[in-house]
Amino acid sequence: MKTYDGGPEWTTSALAQLENLKRAEALLPENAPRALLSVRLSVLTADTTSPVRQELDLRLLARQKGYRVVGVASDLNVSATKVPPWRRRELGEWINNRVPEFDALLFWKLDRFIRRVTDLSAMIEWCERYGKNLVSKHDAIDLSTTLGRSMVTLIGGIAEIEAANTSTRVTSLWDYARTQDSWLVGKPAYGYVTTKVDGKPALAIEPCAHRALHWARRMALRGVSARRMARCLVRSGLMSAGLTTSTLLRRLRNPALMGYRVAENKQGGKRRSQLVLGDGGKPIRVGPPLFTHEEFHTLQAALDRRAKEQPTRQAGGATRFLGVLICADCSTNMTVQRNRRNGRTYSYLRCGKCKGGGLGAPGPQNVYDILVDDVLRLLGDFPVQVREYAPGAEARAEVERLEEAISHYMTELAPGGRFTKTRFTRERAEKTLEELTGKLNAIDPETTQDRWILVHNGRTFRQMWEAGGMEAMAEDLRRVGVTCEVTRKKVQGVRAPSVQLRLKIPRDVRERLVIKGDDFPARR
């Protein structure tokens, strides 16, 4: 039975209605306008309109307006407030890459499609640029008229106000919950589970997590590294297989382990939890403590002693070709790790899964230089091509005009026609008919279709990369899927390993290098 991903199944009656609508659609002429259906829900509940109902209603609307349905973009569990249409998984693919395949975008209700006036304005501009229309099942929307565009903006403003009110209510609930000593809402910190005491929600200690955290504390006091602790916890089954060193450290440093309410501090680029203070500036206790104050603070001191002195992170990132340079042994990204010893900073290329990061390869800049030379040699002379949209409406109109004129002249040249009465009129009509036929044959049928075309901007990628630097090259290499395998081998008597690079270029690299314009650059 047909289903939506993560959504409900189609019933027998709904499938029967769908087949009837498809049979009616098959009777439409070949040149019928093409419609894309947009189906969206934030959360599927008993009070929401199901995606099945939305699709059937939109197919009925398409039949009423004479549209041929060419696709259904279904985005379930997606917030219209947080995710604009061009960033949704299915609808975004149609908007960004499949523009020539549809003429109108149909949706059930405007708030099912969009909830921000700025996003709505962007979509209206996009429709005007590409000659598309927006059609709603339950709103009077038609971009072909001034009144219709005004209605879109008005209804979009109302939808944004409704979304803002919902956000305000949710924020108020969270603000209130943070001031209470009982657990009202939210996901508890690691080590706790929700329960009920005297019919009220509360927190309780999770036994398995209790054992894992206290074992980790004992190991930390003995000077065991967090990396080794994480491996042991995963092997023992006390923590999940996806545990990373940073996740373990974040759990061990969370003051919520003392039974207090915490909030995430998002400043400084690090995920850290800090205590929420109540009346009188005292922490708010919301559950039984996993660690006493003394146990927690001795644990922090032990973790601090093991912490390495790391240099300040570079603004642009330490690794220049992150995502391009790949370890040949473990297939993870090569990253630059910088250590400071005796006042000097040392940089090494390391990977993610090899033991200890693999053989430490010093001198990342040398690797970058070799990679740049190889890329310029193999791809630098390729022309830079930009994808542009070419509508076929003008060519279609010209074909229609020529066909009507040819049909007219052929009718009048038939026996008894107006152009057959004299030799002069017949010869002139035949000459004109020949000219019209020549013009019709000269029109490339491809130009009558909406399509993407490739335009050469007169530059090569070598010129573009030399102007934009390694950052521009790295971005393009990631975009087209070019990777470079890094092999490190131990050399007898030499501390630094030998480093070899192997560039892996997709066969369709020319097509992938085509630059696709971004219609929403400031709104992504």
Automatic annotation (TrEMBL):
Keywords: DNA recombination, DNA-binding. It comes from the Bacteria. Residues 189-309 form the Recombinase domain. The keyword 4Fe-4S does not apply. The keyword Lipoprotein does not apply. One of its GO terms (molecular function) is DNA strand exchange activity. InterPro entries: DNA_bind_recomb_sf, DNA_bind_recombinase_dom, Resolv_N, Resolvase-like_N_sf, SSR_resolvase, Zn_ribbon_recom_dom. PANTHER family: DNA-INVERTASE FROM LAMBDOID PROPHAGE, SERINE RECOMBINASE PINE-RELATED. This is Recombinase family protein. It comes from Streptomyces albus.
